[in-house]
Write a structure and sequence with these properties.
Layout: H1 2-13, H2 24-28, H3 42-45, E1 55-70, H4 75-84, H5 89-99, E2 102-118, E3 121-136, H6 137-145, E4 151-154, E5 160-177, E6 187-214, E7 217-229, E8 232-246, E9 249-264, E10 269-280, E11 290-298, E12 302-305, E13 309-317, E14 321-330, E15 342-349, E16 357-362, E17 371-380, E18 383-392, E19 403-412
Antiparallel strand pairs: 1-2, 1-19, 2-3, 3-5, 4-6, 5-6, 6-7, 6-8, 7-10, 8-9, 9-12, 9-13, 10-11, 13-14, 14-15, 15-16, 16-17, 17-18, 18-19
Helix pairs in contact: 1-4
Length: 414
């Protein structure tokens, strides 16, 4: 049992990334960045903020963000089990309660490839990787308690895998004024268009299984269908609005993933797995016989669609501090979006102009759990270097965190 717990902890906290924007700067505000993005990143957050008065250059690989998290395991729990030398019933019950139906893993990253903003027009390119997986708590119940129930059902809801990576080339234009009467607040409009190069996609399209228990042991019948694609092309668009509604207060609205999709044209296949086991006993798993079948099928080109996402943001920018708040609501589940709304909040303290201090908080959703961000910047215009990290489901990084996120941001022309 100790080895199993250690393996799960390592897998969930220390696995390398398989590769909303998780580049360095947005990560440092826990994603509260819609109204803060004025350079090349405005292509991804709110293109209305692309300004004719600003210039910047986004260096390859020097704006990077990574996040890995899970919803169950932390080092504090593992150390407690190791100190006692055994796992008690209370520990087992707590572990199952933490899972809330399934063990969930998230691994996200984004890396800058190139970007520059020249007078309200920007060109940018990034590499994106989104990965999430879920494993039903029923598997862990069997491991911890044995077969206490007559039947266990497994479905795609609590057992799934979604992995997606692509690169984009994005063109945006902003700082366009809507033709409104002068007595109304002036609203800026912008748009961006992303041309996508799909690198890989993998997703469970079916996960059905049943495990029954009787006097002859356990009987398992499990069917899994895994869809894969390597190489594709796609598009997604964004429109954004921004305007000052009061002194030092600017608000914005975006609609992202317009016509968002990638069509996979290379390496397209489905893999069908079937696992059958008969007369299995938990106490004698080493000698159990499992029959496995695997079939690979070539499939036609198919689309991965990105549901649209609504964003709302506000930024209060004063001399010594700036405060921001963001709201996001996806209209469907995907590696990029969640139907569960999320809120994020950020602050930058500017008492020392050459060393801005930033913090952020996000309530999280199905893509990433709640998290707290901390970062420190070093600014000597026109260059700024910032380093930051996030603690997942813990106020501070430590033994109770369920994951970590790191960010690096380097840019010129601010």
């Amino acid at each position: 049992m100790k080895r199993i717990l250690l393996f799960l902890l390592i897998a969930l906290l220390a696995l390398p990334l398989l590769g909303r924007s998780f580049t360095g700067r947005p990560m440092m505000f826990a994603g509260s960045y819609m109204m803060r993005a004025h350079g090349s990143e405005a292509n991804y957050w709110n293109p209305a903020l692309l300004s004719f008065d600003r210039r910047d250059f986004w260096w390859p690989l020097l704006d990077t963000g990574m996040l890995m998290s899970n919803n169950t395991f932390d080092l504090d729990f593992y150390n407690r089990i190791m100190e006692k030398g055994q796992i008690s019933k209370e520990d087992k019950d707590l572990l199952i309660k933490k899972m809330e139906g399934s063990l969930r893993l998230n691994m996200l990253s984004q890396t800058s490839l190139l970007g520059f903003n020249l007078g309200g027009v920007a060109l940018s390119s990034s590499f994106h990787s989104y990965n999430k997986a879920a494993l039903s708590e029923n598997y862990l119940k069997l491991l911890l308690y044995g077969n206490e129930e007559d039947e266990y059902l497994f479905s795609n809801k609590h057992n799934n895998l979604a992995s997606l990576s692509f690169a984009d080339v994005t063109v945006g234009m902003g700082d366009l004024r809507l033709p409104l009467p002068e007595e109304y607040p002036q609203i800026k409009f912008g748009w961006s268009a992303s041309f996508l190069l799909g690198l890989h996609e993998m997703k469970t399209t079916r996960f059905d299984g049943v495990l029954r228990s009787d006097f002859d042991g356990l009987h398992l019948d499990q069917d899994i269908v895994l869809r894969k694609g390597l190489g594709g092309f796609g598009f997604k668009g964004m429109i954004g609005f921004a305007g000052n509604v009061a002194e030092n207060l600017e608000v914005g609205l975006t609609l992202d993933n317009i016509l968002g999709n990638i069509q996979w044209v290379l390496g397209k296949e489905e893999t069908h797995y079937r696992v059958i086991a008969d007369s299995v006993y938990i106490a004698d798993l080493e000698n159990a016989y499992f029959s496995t079948e695997q079939e690979d099928f070539k499939i036609d080109s198919y689309n991965t669609r990105f549901p649209m996402e609504l964003g709302l943001g506000a930024l209060y920018d004063a001399k010594m501090v700036s405060l921001s708040a963001d709201f996001r609501q996806g209209f469907g589940e995907s590696p990029l979006t969640s139907k569960t709304p999320s809120f994020s909040f950020g602050a930058e303290f500017k008492q020392l102009d050459f060393m801005p201090i930033r913090i952020g908080f996000s309530t999280g959703n199905s893509i990433a759990p709640w998290r707290v961000a901390y970062s420190l910047g070093f600014r000597v215009k026109p260059v700024e270097l910032s380093l930051g990290m996030q603690s997942i489901q813990s106020l501070f990084p430590g033994y109770k965190t369920k994951g970590l996120s790191f960010g690096l941001s380097f840019r010129t022309g601010i």
